[in-house]
Specification:
Pfam families: CMD. GO terms for molecular function: 4-carboxymuconolactone decarboxylase activity. Its EC number is 4.1.1.44. It comes from Bradyrhizobium jicamae. The chain is mainly alpha-helical and about 130 residues long. It is globular, with a radius of gyration of 15 Å. The model has no long low-confidence stretch (mean pLDDT about 95). Helices cover about 80% and strands about 0% of the residues.
Length: about 130
């Protein structure tokens, strides 16, 4: 079952983050972080992101809101870039940040909006 979850996780991770990102992560993997990479691939991508209940777009929106609320800025930027693959629109990102402002605080949303705006701007999507 673990190998299946790993394969599924890598497939979903590639679909969301892109082959280049996953290839870089896999190439940089060492004995030190191998178990961590396996955990991410099996747990986050193979167990949660692969579930049928929500679309990749819906998972993307929730993930960005959580990352913004928790102040995980590098991961937020990565997931804003991933919206190219998940179907979440710039409008979806903006709406998610409004929820962050109300439920997690304006300072968290303010910084997250700056990050999202920069990423989407660099990509010519806003």
């Amino acid at each position: 079952m673990s190998a299946s979850r790993l394969e599924t996780g890598l497939k979903v991770r590639r679909a969301v983050l892109g082959d280049a990102h996953v290839d870089r992560a896999e190439a940089a993997k060492t004995p030190f972080d191998g178990a961590f990479q396996q955990l991410i691939n099996e747990g986050a991508w193979g167990s949660v992101w692969a579930r049928p209940n929500w679309t990749l777009r819906e998972r993307s929106i929730v993930t960005m809101a959580l990352l913004a609320a928790l102040g995980h800025h590098d991961e937020l930027a990565m997931h804003v870039r991933a919206t190219r693959n998940t179907g979440a629109t710039p409008e979806d990102v903006s709406e998610a940040m409004l929820h962050v402002a109300v439920y997690a605080g304006v300072p968290a949303a303010n910084h997250a909006v700056k990050i999202a705006k920069a990423v989407l701007g660099e990509e010519g999507r806003i």
